[in-house]
Amino acid sequence: MGTWGLGSFENDAALDWVIALKRSRDREFPLGVLRRVAAVGPMDGRDGEVGVAAAETVAASRGWPTESLPDGVWDWLERTGGLAEASMAELALRAIDAIEDESSELRALWDEVGSAEWRERMADLRERLGASAREISPPLPPPEIRVREGDVVQLLTSAGQTAFIQFIGKEDRGLDLIRVLPGLFSVPPWGDALAALIGGDTAFLSLGSFRGMLGLAGSRHKENYPIPPPLRGPQPLKLHLKGGGGSVTYQGRKMSAEEFATLHPDIDQTMLADWARVPFPDTLLGMIEQEWRPWMGDNDFGNSHPPPRPVPYPPTAQQGKFLLDS
Predict the structure, then answer these.
(1) Are the beta carbons of 70 and 280 closer than 8 angstroms?
(2) What letter would DSSP give residue 269?
(3) Of 71, 144, 257, 319, which is least surrounded by CB within 10 A?
(4) Cα 162 from Cα 150, distance rounded (Å)
(5) pLDDT per residue over 96-143, tens digit each?
(6) Contact indicator for 213, 284 with CB cutoff of 8 Å
(7) Does residue 312 have a cis peptide bond before it, meaning omega lies within 30 degrees of 0?
(8) How remote is the C-alpha of 261 from its chain's centroid?
């Protein structure tokens, strides 16, 4: 997947399905998916992800949408009126039964990661599907958020600590390049202390939506600060970092991790942004809370301490720093 996360629509399969839903004028469009999922035995993970999205669409049509319901679903609801009948909710519940069955690949994938939160979200979806139908209330359009390179946002973690990110530009496909500042703070730095933190050249980079991060609960815009010189301009991007392997794209050229380490010994490749996967805002915040670093694999997410950096590792590179001005 290019995108992933705990939410019902935080995966490529669900988002692809929403695109097709948005184009449809068929009031029963979600039912085909739900009938297939409810009727089959063992299903693959993609069918499970689409089944969850279809079940969420039924819940939304009965007036109980998830907070992160995509605009495409709202467009379809406005066009068709949705599926408010109780029988549709019962079908969606049977589909969720199949998705949570022991033979389901999607359940096995989440069990492997050890995500209790996914089960909690499925329980919440069941509760909303079981509730009596009510009037659909589309959300008001959010105010336009304008951001500039150098803007800094203070994030609020689930433990009540603060973290900081900075928008440092876009990569060549137009995705935001987000700089995660080091540290979690019980008392947020301000004034000169905050400027010193932002002015350092330590950088953990991630692709994502900076506007989406600004829209998270408890987020605060902290004005614009200069981007440190080593972080200006194109940054190296590393494909799939699990196990330390994968290729690196830098200055328009794609090369192996080993070749990159030879050509650019002063750049710590474990700090490179991972463009194989793009986390949603709440997922990236969860990663920041767990002190996630770009070299961590899928199964490492949620660990209390980051695993050691993989090899190959340039012996001259400094941890957490880019030295691109040399």
Answers:
(1) no
(2) G
(3) 144
(4) 19
(5) 999 988 888 888 888 877 678 888 999 999 999 999 999 887 776 666
(6) yes
(7) yes
(8) 28
Residue given tokens 């899928």 in the structure block: 298
Euclidean distance between CA atoms 318 and 323, whole angstroms: 9
Rg value, the chain, Cα:
22
Give the phi and the psi of residue 180 in degrees, each rounded to 5: -95, 115
Q: Which residue has the higher pLDDT, 324 or 235?
A: 235
What is the per-residue DSSP string for 114-143? T-HHHHHHHHHHHHHHHSPP----PPPPPP
Question: Cα(193)–Cα(174) distance, rounded to whole angstroms?
Answer: 32
Rounded to whole angstroms, how far apart are CA atoms 151 and 224?
4
The three-state secondary structure class of 250 is strand
Spacing of C-alpha 254 from chain mean position: 25
Residue type, position 227, single letter: I
CA distances from 200 to 106, 148, 166, 181, 229 (A): 42, 19, 12, 9, 10
User: For every residue of 182-225, which 3-state class applies, written as one string?
Assistant: CCCECCCCCHHHHHHHHHCCECEEEEECHHHHHCCCCCEEEEEC
CB atoms within 10 A of CB 214: 19
